[in-house]
User: Fold these one by one.
Assistant:
Number 1:
Amino acid sequence: MIYLDYNATTPCDKRVVEAMLPFFQEKFGNPSSLYYLGQEAKNAIEETRERIARFIGARKEEIIFTSGGTEANNLAIRGTIEALKKKGNHLITSSIEHHSVLKVFQSLEKEGFEVTYLPVNDAGQLDPDTLQKSIRPSTILISIMQANNETGVIEPIKELASLAQTKGIVFHTDAVQTMGKIPIKVKDLGVSLLSASAHKFYGPKGIGFLYLRKGTPLSPQIRGGEHERRKRAGTENVPAIVGMGKATEIAAGEMEAETKKVETLRNTLEEGLLSTIPEIEVVSQKAPRLFNTSLILVKDVEGESMLLNLDFEGIEVSSGSACTSGSLEPSHVLLACGYPHEIAHGSIRFSLGKFNTAEEINQVLEVFPKIVEKLRKISPFGKSEVH
Amino acid sequence: MIYLDYNATTPCDKRVVEAMLPFFQEKFGNPSSLYYLGQEAKNAIEETRERIARFIGARKEEIIFTSGGTEANNLAIRGTIEALKKKGNHLITSSIEHHSVLKVFQSLEKEGFEVTYLPVNDAGQLDPDTLQKSIRPSTILISIMQANNETGVIEPIKELASLAQTKGIVFHTDAVQTMGKIPIKVKDLGVSLLSASAHKFYGPKGIGFLYLRKGTPLSPQIRGGEHERRKRAGTENVPAIVGMGKATEIAAGEMEAETKKVETLRNTLEEGLLSTIPEIEVVSQKAPRLFNTSLILVKDVEGESMLLNLDFEGIEVSSGSACTSGSLEPSHVLLACGYPHEIAHGSIRFSLGKFNTAEEINQVLEVFPKIVEKLRKISPFGKSEVH
Amino acid sequence: MYSEKVLDHFRNPRNVGKIENPDGVGKVGNPVCGDVMVMYLKIKEDVIEDARFETFGCGAAIATSSMATELIKGKTIEEARQISNNAVAEALDGLPPVKMHCSVLAEEGIKAAIEDYLQKKKEQ
Amino acid sequence: MYSEKVLDHFRNPRNVGKIENPDGVGKVGNPVCGDVMVMYLKIKEDVIEDARFETFGCGAAIATSSMATELIKGKTIEEARQISNNAVAEALDGLPPVKMHCSVLAEEGIKAAIEDYLQKKKEQ
Ligand SMILES: Cc1ncc(COP(=O)(O)O)c(C=O)c1O
Ligand SMILES: Cc1ncc(COP(=O)(O)O)c(C=O)c1O
């Protein structure tokens, strides 16, 4: 099996599983409990909090554990808006956000908030000037992702957030695709809120965190006990938190080396595909991009049919975003980049990770052109041959 | 170490950990992905859904996975109210609910809803007549827990829910303390919503579920992808879901036998304590109670000081509820039962589980009377000697 | 998510391609929606002697196209016209709910090609 | 959550009990709030010769009571009166924030017992 869908999810690093294991049966205490076993669990999660805080240049008290990236995004947006709704009702986001951001804004629109969805250029990039112009006196929140999960494009968060900062507007960034991949320093970025999810960087599923800058108001969305400084109730998922801590530690130590390795593989893949398959395009190839992501548009062929054919060959990739694969709409990200529907339907995403090898990439380069050729033969459109 | 705080959390059953393990590194796919690895994960969670549904007599589509009991309770209450708020603004709950229910109602009160907190009798039981009288034409939701986490008292959910049913009011029950301990059949109980949490029945932390009867309106609280039939977005916590499934399977097979064993131990403990320590009381001893729970009131001694002394001896118990141990208020449950503050401060909860042994109980019976004696000597109140 | 049969017809689609000088051609779907099917028919005395297709679309679109050509070969045009989208889906052991629209495409493809044939016949 | 020192003073509280015919007694706290402390003093020429306590309360309440008696023994009443709750907490290597009120109880206990002593002295 050749797994090339690391942006959808990653396998846990072995060391992450090892770190988690003792917390299921032995160190199983409830961190709210005062006795030894409880305090042991409490200490384990507090150490993780410290470690994650250090990694992103934050303070321990600024990290709130959540059940994943989706919850962190929901909490960031709803939590801010509930806390600030008396101050205004205008919100700004982009048209390329993940559904866990977009759907929240769409539901807020129904509740009477005004939302500006910023456009992107052909390469999927946001323009600070456009943001500047869309800010109103009633703007209370701006939420822009740090890197897009489909294209890999990295947005100029620092420039965007500084515009928010000068006007005293809360700025949130969805860093689910960047955490563990590129260095993040929240002070540098100038954001008030930042979301991440462990299963995107070799940690377990079902755990993530929200960075909440000290002093930023936030209304909890899940209420109950006094957990997470009253910002998020519920018995802490201790093993998963510890696992996310380990994943962070590993990223801190190995990120740089992995980046180089994976980027080389990704570039080999792209060059190989571009030189063997006619009429394909690498989306945003010239823009600042994540080193591991390659979104390819293949003319005259539909994405899912490529995906399934690759699956038959044991190669696992995504067609656009994992979450939207079940839907019939083409990727909203590609549409936002200005691609027409018929082109956007022909997208296939390769997202690489640290366990990939050069042989695997060669295998893909062997197999994929044949698949495209086969599907183009079935297609009623342009009958161009593969070289 | 003698762990007697199973109502706070339980260790994972060994078989649960074994069932989860393959899903961290090998079967790590994202259930939204169309290729083999994704569908494998998808099948694993759908089998779990089926298994849990069967266990509680529900249908597969009626089970929504959440990050735990707290989230399930929040989703049940807020989700119902958002869906039904046009129909009325009166809500009913009890004064002995878990904080993950109470705090949600308290925040709803601030948002303009009217909430009736039903009283309980001295034994912590709710009276269907009292509920009947408190129902108004504007009542849209009733939420009553099936068993209380502190006293173990089991409420007459069937009678209470039938009152709701005749008036077409949505009825939710927090079954976090009953799931896996006593048989649950949702049709029998007549509830529309039921919450549970895996870490209370030998499953992992960070996972739970909400039963949502078909046709009951519910507004999602975490939005994003199309997961969980659009009732709860976020990449599924596959290993934890599988673990909860295994825990359910184990409960289905072994619950009955474990109940007998644990009940005998609990009764031995209670009889032993009552016969050696003067001026103590077992709360709700005569009421229908969970077989594993024993809440003891010790006169003239404060709960935390007993808890810490027991901890010194390697015995881990809770003083009231795990969640409130960090706070200074005595248990709201004991206050609701009519105990004065000074008595309520002297509570200590033993909650047993399937890994406890007769020797462990003997050890507690050896140690605890001495601790009470010591603390009563320090106390300025009544200087009664321990026999 | 897909049945074995769907995967089989997707992996090894039957009757792919054009027919030279077809008696009927139906083009349905829309590239904007992500699926387009062209159905070519060879018809003799109102019996479908050969059917071929070209499809741009997802796995289900290709599999239903393939199955549709199989189903109509040898049938009279009256019989073929009565093949519903459900029949195509059933012949494939079912389709996921989100993909049922692909079977509609197949049904419409058959009907469009037959209409084209009848139209041409009238014009002769 | 508690420092080693707190746990030590809680586990082995110093100076537990009553003093017969004390020169000063202070009773502070409230059973409703979950902590009550009674401080007994033996005072000679305004120097605290002995101090004992009885406390109903949590771990921190018992530990701060114990530490308070240790801190004031041998001190003049003027010195003892100046012992703040922070000083008691610091002597125990700190207390968790939710438990700081217990150190207030200790400070108040000392003050109340000294007041009682001064009151009695005045009345003599
Ligand atoms: C950019 C982005 N944001 C948010 C999420 C959601 O995170 P999670 O899968 O932890 O719910 C994802 C992945 O699905 C993502 O790629
Ligand atoms: C009755 C009851 N409801 C809800 C909860 C919350 O569940 P969780 O710990 O999974 O958040 C608990 C336990 O903490 C409980 O005892």
Number 2:
Amino acid sequence: MAVRLLYFAWVRERIGVADEEVPLEGPLPLAALVERLRARTPGHAHALGEPARLRAAINQEFADWNAEVHPGDEVALFPPVTGG
Amino acid sequence: MAVRLLYFAWVRERIGVADEEVPLEGPLPLAALVERLRARTPGHAHALGEPARLRAAINQEFADWNAEVHPGDEVALFPPVTGG
Amino acid sequence: MTFTVRVEAQPFDVAREHARLSALGPGVGAVVLFTGQVRDEPLLLDHYPGMAERQIAARLAEACARWPLLGATIIHRFGPLAVGEGIVLVGTASAHRAAAFESASFLMDWLKTSAPFWKKAAGGWVEARASDELAAARWLETQEQLR
Amino acid sequence: MTFTVRVEAQPFDVAREHARLSALGPGVGAVVLFTGQVRDEPLLLDHYPGMAERQIAARLAEACARWPLLGATIIHRFGPLAVGEGIVLVGTASAHRAAAFESASFLMDWLKTSAPFWKKAAGGWVEARASDELAAARWLETQEQLR
């Protein structure tokens, strides 16, 4: 079982990949998932070090850090949006 | 000495002319001028009988019934505007 | 900066007016274009030549005093108009969207109550709506808030 | 009634989008077209495909619940954009101007804070502005007043 991670803007640039799969056996709060991701590489640590500067989506809906991630979910991490 | 009168919309239709000149020797409140105009023809009386349904402009600026009309002025009488 | 007022019988070209506003320079970030069109039945638009241009220009000067506009275009038509035809076009260009939206809305609200045009439909002359007076009046109340 | 959401790389055609909205039927009396364009320096727009369309469509559904719209078009571009090029187009059509103006302004405010796009300029990624969050939040406060 796994979750699919997507990164955008400077989060993607710092991590160095646009997407990846990470193993996940059961539900996990988003904050805990991000904690795990930070340990993967120095790029992850740099990109994900300040959660206050990040926003997240689970299955393409905005989610807060308490939201639960389930195996099979699509999780995206990115800076506050600046479109329009 | 005279003032030039302009009529628009149903005011013009009731009076039957789009514009006319009426004699004016000295300054006169707009309300008094309209009173005089009402006496000219039955069409004038019909068009100008209810000042609450009319609006006025002196020299192309909106004016209220207390405003003074001077010889040489351009005075317009019309219903509330409905453009846009 | 280009500020244009036109009162004319012929149809306006939305694409051309938008292109003009959006090409006013690298500082333009937002363009709002409002068009009012004939709804449900044909209209005849009477107007007061001279005063129409003058009133519209006065409203535009007020908008320029209130918002940092880089350009604006106001076109009001007169004469016979078929259903679906454009009656009025108000376009504004600014660096940011709030100024463009608010000024265009302000201009339309004031044109409705101060531009000397009168609509005639098959059933007779269209009556002025109290809601239009209220819409214009709210800009007086909010003048301070908006700065 | 036609409600359209497009997220695409190619330029949009303002004249065509305006013509579509204004031709939605004899009940259309007002069309508001907002365009945002690149100001001062070229931009690269990153976006989240799928979520972008989904978020825009959700905002459009909210606008339809709040205002009596006869149609709306939202187009957001991504990829490299030169100065003066259109980034986003929001068009609304309604019987009356208030609904068209307010819904277009609402849609832009919410797109700014909820559509997953990110602008990169020569100096790096553009920072989100607190004023955009405030602009979106005011629609929550005024929800009751506006009905």
